[in-house]
Amino acid sequence: MPNILKKAIRDIPDFPKEGVIFKDITPLLSDGELFRRAIDIMYKKFKNKEIDKIAAIESRGFIFGSALAYKLGAGLVPIRKKGKLPYKTINADYDLEYGASSVEIHSDAVNKDERVLMVDDLLATGGTMKAASELVEKLGGEIVGLCFLIDLTFLKGIEKLKKYNIYSLMEF
Amino acid sequence: MPNILKKAIRDIPDFPKEGVIFKDITPLLSDGELFRRAIDIMYKKFKNKEIDKIAAIESRGFIFGSALAYKLGAGLVPIRKKGKLPYKTINADYDLEYGASSVEIHSDAVNKDERVLMVDDLLATGGTMKAASELVEKLGGEIVGLCFLIDLTFLKGIEKLKKYNIYSLMEF
Q1: Inter-chain contact B64–A69, Cβ cutoff 8 Å?
Q2: Considering only alpha carbons, which residue of chain B is nearest residue A84?
């Protein structure tokens, strides 16, 4: 992973609550060259994996999932917070770092045996990604891998996600 | 605008509330070929406009803004609902179709005289886009255009946005 990308991540102390150091990815995003480089690294990792669809988690996951779907020629499946998707959905509850929540997917979003790459910006405790992955599997999708920009390794998210191939561009 | 893209938009009656027909873009997104075609049409429209940054509105705007930023080699600036951005922000309030809300941008997201393309999935009453555009202008950005997948023309959003160049792929 090029160090230049890691340097573009900005620490924000006490966000969203006291004692948490938030990793702000916006300096990386707002630099067109760095953003493109990040997507290209993800693309190279998965271009030969015959990805049919990318399932991206609202809302920062959309940013990486969408550009990657475009580059791979894959479809994009949004996984959203409860009540946001307009059609028939299935949902999964999960605990997250700062409380509890629920994610939803359209029930027609993934077809049986489609090869799906899961994308989010950041792996923290892994709760959101685990719930999202279970939704894709419930619909019959085959999860080819989980792709993150950042892995906060000290939160040990990968322990919840042991059965999957996990790729992250950088670790903190 | 290719009719095939328009056919991929699904009507959802009574969402998010009774009497509203919601335009569901997920069938277009989940088809890799159609999604790529939509982005390519936007790209052709703006590729010679020397776009420095794309300002994309949370959260469906991220989907089109991100892929387009990647293709254009532009930076991506997220415009988000209040309280979501971690760094110093400026915000703007606005009325929207189903209530009132506020959008924020990082105060360092756009530099003076940078050429910015505003992106969202759907133009309804135009309130969100107007507030978002004012934020970019407050930071000194020059708005090259506003780009939407869909214009709900019967809501007359363009009347709020007369000073801008508006492009939409399809109208309903």
Answers
A1: no
A2: B16
